[in-house]
Every structure is written in structure tokens, then in C-alpha cells.
Design goal:
α4 runs antiparallel to α8 and α11 packs antiparallel against α12. The protein has 353 residues and is an alpha+beta fold. It is globular. Strands 1-2-3-5-4 form a five-stranded antiparallel beta sheet. The protein contains twelve helices and ten strands.
């Protein structure tokens, strides 16, 4: 049985914790909604036990209560993807993720639930504020643990929830073109002429952009790898990053995640100063993990191409989820930063028709 938020009880929480080795009875709990998710809804449960022992709190994740957002989550398989990640992939990759006590879904949703480790005092990153070099470097280094275990591994094709890596891009471009006019109406006046033009050209390029991808280089990719989906613990000498919100995981070029994060996670000036050093460090970690036949020139080319990685999420998601003031701020910031990233990288060469 998958409980709705109002059906969570102390007995149910006790049952899930005991299944995962926590031999304690939850006597009571309080709850509060947390996070800024557009498609999911997260609730922190502060737990009280007979004895004052950990865990003190856990986080439950459910579908958004907004009908448009939850319908989008079903349409894009967001709920299914996230549940399957925790069920089938979490133990096979080494990227830092929260411990999962419960992960179940009915069909493709929207009825689903995750019960996850609460990583407080780690705090959610802020996409609007951006981050500095240390957090960005830590975030990109974490990606090595996602990409290398399945680097160019054809067994990924046997996991249907990840989608068809050979066909999925076509549908994505069709959806992009359908939603772009509404996006341009809402945000176009706040973008420079060059920024709006390259956002438009990306949607028109379709096949040319797809053909610029090396099909031999692929791995699981988070696809929505941004600060709002990271929990950051900066209490140690180096920041520790934990990755959440696996609602969009798919298969694609690994540098997609790198370009997506750096393109909008850092302000343009800070990105220009740091990106080559950070990408080189990522490549060195790939080599240390045993990845061969992938030199830095190819890595940098894929990074330049991946400056377009945030275009689809920005344009499509902004039109398919519930409109909020913070959501509009976030999507505008992403549009400005991702488009400027592509301009800075001279990435229009990948759109040649």
C-alpha cells in the first residue's frame, strides 16, 4: 500500500524504519512541507521515539497536489523514473544520494511515495543565487560516480524507464517547438536579442544537433542537475554534495550534466573563470576511474555542445508546470544563463542546418 500524505502514521513510519534496520518505535511525529519542487512535494517528518535515538527525521516525497504539475509528472514519466532509480540503480552507482527507506509507485503515477534519509543540516542549493568554485567543483566531481559505472554500457538499454537513447531526442525537440511560443511570450522581453535568437534556433535545429552527438559515448544522466536539486553540507573543509530529484534520469552524453550544471549553477562571470579547470578535473577523474578512449579534446567539445543542455528543461518545463513567482524567476535565470553559456562557447556551430 502506498499512503497519501494524510495517511502517514507513526505505525507506518515504524514499519518502514524496522524493515531497514532501525529497531525503534516511532511514538509520534510532526511534519512540515519543505523544498521548492515544481512536480513533487516533499514533507519532513520530525520523529519522536521512546528513546532519543537517530534518525531524528525523514523526508517523504509525493506527487504535487497541483493537477497540472502532477499530470506533467505522469506524462514525462517523472514519478516512475525516480522510483525506479531508487529501486534499481541507486545501489549500482556511487554518486552521493540519500538512503531510501521506501519506494513504491502505482503504474506510472501520480500515486507514489519515497521515504528518504533527511540530510539536515545540509541545505538545498539556490539556483537563483548561484554558487562559487568550490561547490561547483564538488558537484561536478560527484557526477563521476553516476557516469563511470555504466559508461557506454549497452545494458542500459535493458532498463526501459530510462527511455530509448536513440529516439528520445526527436520527441523532445517536437515538444520544445510546441512550447517555445508561449515561453517567448512570457520571458522574451527579459532576454537579449542574441539570447532569444539562440533559444529559438536550438528548437529549429533538431536533426542537425542530434547528428553532432557521438553515439558511442553515453551513460546515465541526471538531466536536471542543478543547485535546487543538491543538498550541500559546507560544515567540513570541502563542501559535501548529495543529489536528489531523480525524476528525469535518462541515458545520454555524460557531459550533458556537466554543461547543464555549470551553465546555470554559476553566474556567467564566475563560470568563465572556473569552467575549464573544473571540466579538466572531471576528465582527470574519469581517467582515474578507468575510462579510456576519451581524450580531453573530445571531452571539451562535448562540454561546449552541452551548453545547450538546459534549453529543453527551461523552455518545456516552464510551460508545463504550475506557474509561480519563484518558478518564473528560476526559469528566467536559467534561460539567461544557459543561452549566454551557449553564446560564450560558440556552440552555434552544432546547430548548422
Amino acid at each position: 500500500m502506498i499512503p497519501a500524505p494524510e495517511e502517514i502514521t507513526a505505525a507506518w513510519l515504524t514499519e518502514q524504519l524496522r524493515k531497514n534496520g532501525v529497531d525503534r518505535d516511532v511514538t509520534s511525529f510532526t511534519q512540515e512541507r519543505i523544498g521548492t519542487g515544481q512536480i513533487g512535494m516533499c514533507i519532513r517528518y520530525q520523529l519522536q521515539f521512546e528513546k532519543n535515538e537517530a534518525p531524528k527525521s525523514v523526508v517523504g516525497k509525493f506527487a504535487s497536489p497541483d493537477p497540472l504539475s502532477s499530470a506533467t509528472g505522469v506524462q514525462l514519466l517523472n514519478y516512475l523514473k525516480e522510483v525506479r532509480f531508487y529501486q534499481l540503480l541507486q545501489d549500482r552507482v556511487s554518486i552521493n544520494t540519500p538512503y531510501c527507506y521506501f519506494a513504491e509507485i502505482e503504474g506510472e503515477g501520480p500515486v507514489f511515495m519515497l521515504l528518504l534519509e533527511d540530510l539536515a543540516p545540509a541545505t538545498q542549493g539556490d539556483q537563483l543565487e548561484g554558487c562559487g568554485h568550490e561547490v561547483a567543483n564538488a558537484a561536478i566531481q560527484e557526477l563521476v560516480g553516476l557516469h563511470t559505472p555504466f559508461w557506454s554500457d549497452p545494458s542500459l538499454d535493458e532498463m526501459p524507464f530510462l527511455g530509448d537513447r536513440k529516439q528520445s531526442a526527436r520527441g523532445a525537440f517536437e515538444l520544445y517547438q510546441k512550447t517555445f511560443p508561449g515561453f517567448a511570450d512570457r520571458f522574451g522581453s527579459d532576454l537579449s536579442v542574441d539570447q532569444l535568437e539562440i533559444l529559438k534556433r536550438f528548437g529549429e535545429a533538431g536533426e542537425a544537433y542530434r547528428e553532432s552527438v557521438d553515439p558511442a559515448v553515453f551513460a546515465p544522466i541526471h538531466i536536471d542537475y542543478r543547485l535546487d536539486n543538491l543538498l550541500i553540507d559546507d560544515s567540513k573543509e570541502q563542501p559535501v554534495v548529495t543529489v536528489v530529484d531523480w525524476q528525469s534520469i535518462t541515458v545520454g552524453n555524460p557531459l550533458t550534466d556537466v554543461g547543464y550544471f555549470l551553465g546555470a549553477g554559476m553566474l556567467p562571470g564566475a563560470r568563465r573563470e572556473s569552467e575549464k579547470e573544473i571540466v579538466r578535473g572531471y576528465h582527470e577523474s574519469l581517467m582515474a576511474a578507468g575510462i579510456t578512449n576519451y581524450d580531453f579534446d573530445q571531452c571539451w567539445r562535448d562540454y561546449r555542445r552541452s551548453s545547450f543542455a538546459g534549453f529543453s528543461v527551461t523552455v518545456v518545463a516552464s510551460m508545463l508546470v504550475q506557474q509561480t513567482a519563484r518558478g518564473d524567476q528560476m526559469f528566467l535565470a536559467m534561460a539567461q544563463r544557459h543561452s549566454q553559456h551557449a553564446i560564450d562557447m560558440g556552440a552555434e556551430e552544432f546547430l548548422a542546418i
